[in-house]
Amino acid sequence: MTLNAEMALQAEQIPALGAIIQGAELVIPDGAGVVLYLRLKGERSQRCPGIELAASLLAKAGELGGDYPVVFYGGAVGVAATAAAKWQEKYPGLAIAAIQHGYLTPEDTPDFLEQLALIQPKIVLVGLGVPRQELWIAQHRHLCPQAIWIGVGGSFDIWAGVKTRAPSWLRDNNLEWLYRLYQEPWRWKRMLALPKFALRALISKN
Question: What are the CB-based long-range contacts (under 8 Å, 24+) for 95-99?
């Protein structure tokens, strides 16, 4: 799980999401608000963006070759395929077990799930957005119990070149959210979660 402020607040409204976070084998702080909260609690922490965690997994899988097949699932039609191709260009040894866009019909879904169970990949990257990707993983992870399942949000878009990530100086100063708002102004209501979470973190500290 790659936890940020928005997801933490959503977990209060969606009990199933909260349960998934509580039951995850690994939860990393993928947001400045979560890091702030942990530091206020006296815990040493630093942000680990989910896109960077997923990238490190792909790099390692590329080095290990066919022993670590990867599934790319999610995004608009063609986006996951482009993202996978770019990763395979960078790491020719990367084994791509399956690629599937995120607009599966109910009729096509059983075939894809059967494919997952058959190929037993080692890494399953799911880019459906929060909380849909987390709920989907929780529902289907039993199909590949030995795999690493991770929700990657919009990472496919960035890897495919559909969108760009914030410059490093913004990321280093915990302002990546500002760049995303610039790219997608319609997200402004969702961004309200950031100050709300920060305020609650400060109140919790006191």
Answer: 95/61, 95/65, 95/66, 95/67, 95/68, 95/69, 95/70, 96/69, 96/70, 96/71, 96/72, 97/69, 97/70, 97/71, 97/121, 98/71, 98/72, 98/73, 99/71, 99/72, 99/73
